[in-house]
Amino acid sequence: MTTAETKSRTTERGQYRRPDAAQRAARYATGAGASTSTGTGASTGPGTSTVTGIGARTGMGVRTGTATGTGTATGTGTGGRVTVAVYAEDLILQTGMIHQLRMRPEIELMPEAEADRAQVSLVVVDMVDDQTVQLLHRLQRNTATRTGLVVGFFESGALQTMIECGVAAVLRRGEADQDRLIHLVKAMANGEGVLPGDLLGKLLDHVSSLQRTVLDPRGLTLSTLTAREAEMIRLVSEGYDTAEIAQKTSYSERTVKNVLHEVATRLDLRNRAHAVGYAMRHGLI
Questions:
Q1: Mean pLDDT throughout 140-152?
Q2: What is the DSSP string of 14-32?
């Protein structure tokens, strides 16, 4: 190989391995130490989250990387569960009930110190006795909690007591498997009532008897209005004035005014239009 050829190859290798000053300056100006990153995060729904991240870095040596990751987790948060407090007359009943409910993710059992904040109170007893009645009356004072009764033996006379104590649902202990308990709790949390078929029949008979023997003789109804009050408000809703209502009902105008005033005062209504709206919303006329 001639001396000229050796110099030529050496020059070519040198150009390949060692960039000149202009090339190095250009590389530092455009690449060195530069970094770019982009991130996006989103969260949706209780217990569900989705996160996506994209990162890119460009620097000396022209190193570029892109990373993308997506993860999703789904669960049931506290907000979607029904909070329940359990009251039982003995430890065995309470332990059994708690064991049934604790296994279900829809239920959050409240500790004793926070029982008053529960959406549903479950009272578990053998029968409705004086001690049970005292407990039910105490729970009734907490208007934020609805009370359900899981009872071993339900006497016919206990139906009236149940109504007076504001019990929203009844389940016999012999039928209280896990699915029925969950149905009972969810129904109460949704503002519904639950009764065994035979008790529902007795309740309807009781209401009918009450209307027939107690209210009808006094001109009263189960609603918040008497029959006379409801009739007068119905006439108001049809556009009749005081004189016309008096003529149609055979009362004096003074009586009509007094009746309508009494309704407005008792129900905290502002005027006749408000009274009509109230009666219609509650199905009283």
A1: 92
A2: HHHHS--HHHHHHHHHHTT
SS3 content of the chain, % helix, strand, coil (to 5): 50, 20, 30
Threshold 0.85, pTM exceeds: no
Pairing type for strands 82-88 and 66-73 reads unpaired
Beta-sheet pairing, 146-153 with 36-43: unpaired
Note the pLDDT of residue 236: 93
Taking the C-alpha atoms of residue 214 and residue 26, their distance in angstroms, rounded to an integer, is: 102
Rounded CA-CA distance 232/191 in Å is 32
Tokens (6 digits) for 61: 């040596």
Q: What pLDDT band is residue 195 in, cutting at 50, 70 and 90?
A: confident
Beta strands in the chain (DSSP E): 36-43, 49-56, 66-73, 82-88, 107-109, 120-127, 146-153, 167-172
User: What is the rounded CA–CA span in Å between residue 188 and residue 175?
Assistant: 17
Cα distance between residue 63 and residue 220, in whole Å: 88
What is the side-by-side order of every strand in the sheet holding 167-172?
107-109, 82-88, 120-127, 146-153, 167-172
Count of Cβ atoms closer than 10 Å to residue 83 Cβ: 19
Top-confidence residue, 39 or 105: 105
pLDDT for 176 beyond 80: yes
Query: 237 with 276: CB under 8 angstroms?
Result: yes
Please, are residues 196 and 172 in contact by the beta-carbon 8 Å criterion?
Answer: yes
CA Rg value for the chain:
38
Please report the pLDDT score of residue 107 as a whole number: 93
Q: Report the SS3 class of residue 172.
A: strand
Query: What 3-state class would DSSP assign to 202?
Result: helix
Q: Which two tokens mark 62?
A: 């022209």
pLDDT band at 29, cuts 50/70/90? very low
